[in-house]
Design brief:
By secondary structure, the protein is mainly alpha-helical. 53% of the residues lie in helices and 0% in strands. The chain has one domain.
Length: 45
C-alpha cells in the first residue's frame, strides 16, 4: 500500500446537496476555492 497522508480537512458547503456541487456555481466555487487552497498548502508548500 502507498503512503497515506495524515493531513485531512473537512469542508461543508452549507445548504448544498451532493448534486448542487456539480453545477451550481455558488456552491462549486466554494468547494473549488477550498480545494485549491488545500492543494497549494499541502502539495506545493
Amino acid at each position: 500500500m502507498g503512503a497515506v497522508s495524515v493531513i485531512k480537512d473537512l469542508f461543508v458547503v452549507d445548504r448544498a446537496s451532493h448534486y448542487d456541487l456539480y453545477d451550481r456555481p455558488a456552491y462549486v466555487d466554494q468547494a473549488v476555492g477550498k480545494l485549491g487552497a488545500f492543494f497549494e498548502e499541502h502539495l506545493l508548500g
